[in-house]
Amino acid sequence: MTPRSLRIVFFGTPAFAVPSLDALLASAHLVAGVVTQPDRPRGRGHRTSDAPVKIRASEAGLPILQPAGLKAPEFLAALTALEADLGVVAAYGRILTDAVLAVPRLGMINVHASLLPRYRGAAPVHRAVMAGERETGATIMRVVKALDAGPLLAAARRAIGDDETSVDVERDLAQLGARLLTEAVDRLAADGVPGEPQSEAEATYAPRLTKDDSPIDWSRPAEELHDQIRGLHPWPHAETFLDGKRLILLRSHLAAQSSNEPPGAIVAARGDDLDVATGRGVLRIVELQVEGKKPMRTRDFLAGHPVPAGRRLSVAP
């Protein structure tokens, strides 16, 4: 280690956190260990498997802690034994306790996927896309007891494209956050920069997604439904019903035409076009999935499921 290098304990679980871990591994600093969530059932088969951060940490030969609870004395002892100067958090998935925050000598910092103080909370990317935001970003902040409310160390902006999904945006923010992270850690190692306080008056929140977010209400404007579909990808997805069958809507586009048909009415169903009337404007479904089947483009769906114009989509079966 160089004289200015730090011993770091890394807290993270999903794919979003992997670029940050990789950036630290490639830096002048030492990753002393990784804390990640316990193994859980994942995927369609609900088989227990390792999360992306655990896989990467195993490949790198790092000590791995997977506490069921953060207050367990054996976990706190193991964390303390890592002798970390600094803790780094990237989508770990749990609120850290005061006892955990007190372990690293220089405290803890977090890689957050929004331009704080906007979109504090568990689903910042998804909620920003669902709200139709044109811009988001990544922020490095100090971790304090209040949710995502610590002083800001660094931030960078990133535009949100008209048809981009949460997957597209989050993938880029993971890389952007990783670059900001190493710069912030270097500055902390050099001069212990305190950070800039957040404006509480500008704070907004991004609550965790649930399946209650999924139903499409066709009486809403097409723009809002398009944002809902984009924001709920890859989970829990937007949904609608056709003749009692659940359709999962994966990608959409704003159609140029207007329609006088009632909301939910299919105004075109041919070739690549599956156009649906909304409360204002027409929404074109680009990719969808019949429940229990594989995702498919509109053309493939219509080839196996002919739909006459005038048929209506509904919120419930």
CATH topology name of the largest domain: Rossmann fold
Strand content: 25-35%
Mean of pLDDT = 95
Strand line-up in the sheet with most strands? 5-2-1-6-7-8-9
Ends apart, CA distance between termini: 62 Å
CATH architecture of the largest domain: 3-Layer(aba) Sandwich
Give the uncertain stretches in residue-range form. Answer: none
Structural domains: how many: 2
Structural category is: alpha/beta
Note the overall shape: elongated
The tally of helices reads 8
Q: What attributes characterize this protein structure?
A:
Rossmann fold, about 25% strand, Methionyl-tRNA Fmet Formyltransferase, Chain A, domain 2, 2 domains, about 325 residues
Please describe the topology of this protein.
Blueprint: E1 7-12, H1 18-25, E2 30-35, E3 40-42, E4 47-49, H2 52-59, E5 64-65, H3 73-81, E6 86-90, H4 98-101, E7 108-112, H5 124-130, E8 135-142, E9 152-159, H6 166-191, H7 222-231, E10 238-242, E11 245-254, E12 266-270, E13 273-277, E14 282-290, E15 296-297, H8 298-304
Helix pairs in contact: 1-6, 5-7
